[in-house]
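Q: What would this chain look like folded?
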Amino acid sequence: MIAIIDYKAGNLNSVVKAFDKIGIKNFIVQNKEDFKKADKLLLPGVGSFKEAMLNLKKLDFIEILKEQILIQKKPILGICLGMQLFLEKGYEGGFCEGLGLIEGEVVKFQEDLGLKIPHMGWNELEILKQEPLYKNIENKSDFYFVHSFYVKCKDEFVSAKADYGHKFVASLQKDNIFATQFHPEKSQNLGLKILENFARL
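A: My prediction, written as structure tokens:
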């Protein structure tokens, strides 16, 4: 059973529909007790880093979320903003501390590189760690991105990269923590395979 965390910044409906399509049981977390019912967690997200952290704090989700991940060792998948929140700090909406689960920060693409911001559309992945998230997915496959900020962290946590003006982190993996900058739920069959691989952990 996968718990999709509702913190008022999520792309909930499309994620629910994606899991329903591949027959994976899921439900939306609306209070702290709901976390305990889950085998795995999913943190979706669109919008501002700072606003998202404020919402998690208002809902009193931060402590229980960390307990479920770090002590109970439940697998979690962060998507887009959900991935970025795993880092130590971000600057979208002003400086803000993140969940601090992975060392690093979230910074904005440089407009002076002539890039259109946000980065939006299909982009090819350089897959660095095939297992377990990219099982049966070929290197150089395309996935769908929508973001203006990207993660900077140690290479040891990076499971895939993409290129937009320069190489950037497309996905992360650290112990039971998994995350994608792209949207699996919007990436057609390959995206559904990512979600299925996570669900089968």
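The first strand starts at residue 2 and ends at 5.
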